[in-house]
Amino acid sequence: MSERTFLTVPEHVAIIMDGNGRWAKQRGLPRTMGHRKGVDAVRETVRAAGDAGIKYLTLFAFSSENWRRPETEVSDLLGLLKAFIRRDLAELHRQNVRVKVIGDRLSLKSDILDLLVDAEERTKSNTALTLVIAFNYGSRDEIARAMTSLARDVEAGRLRAQDISPALINARLDTAGIPDPDLIIRTSGEERLSNFLLWQAAYSEFIFVPEYWPDFSREIFHSALETFASRDRRFGGLVAQTAAAVGT
Length: 248
Ligand code: FPP
Hints:
The protein is built from 8 helices and 6 strands. It is α/β, with parallel strands linked by helices. It has one domain: Undecaprenyl pyrophosphate synthetase. The longest helix is centred in the N-terminal third of the chain and has 24 residues, at 71-94. The radius of gyration is 18 Å and the shape is globular.
């Protein structure tokens, strides 16, 4: 298949994969079937991102608030993520994909934590796409953890409070070393950020698509990339700029 090329390819795309439950409900299926079909959409999107030359793809897989869902759904979601890592890691490795996980690790059980850490470790030298899995992730929680870490340094005399800068905060976030998302896509017609990458989204472009996540396809992704390429990004200035030029 001939691959599409785009005028401006975002370096980092982040996706809020929403609508699995409604996709299932529309078909009279249990919610878990929506999540299951959602994993197929994850596979297709990872391939499409790599093919388009995107360097970072962040997927909001499980939020720190998702623990409030019924126990069976939480267990289905964790099971699907574990199965994805177990079954797809070899293929991701073959595609030269580096896996990185963001989110609070301290409260995770060792079975899932070990699996995620192992996936990061095994793929750490890959150089094509970095697949960032946001798991047990909440942006306010991430920022609070970064603040605690800076406050400890101030308390211990390793850092002066007046030296705290956006760059220092960046370096304490789970996303340290990852450029800010150029584009954030949310599926299912909902138009909000839901505690996702609040700090990092300062200059992101947003695209909301009506399709439920299980129906997300390479074609819908390409259309979002085309819309992104047509946007002027000014980063507070008056002329169109790239993220690299302004150093965000
Ligand atoms: C939102 O749909 C989706 C989620 C909460 C989880 C997304 C998870 C996956 C696609 C599967 C595992 C992930 C990976 C990376 C393998 P929703 O349940 O909130 O849908 P609704 O708003 O229609 O109820």
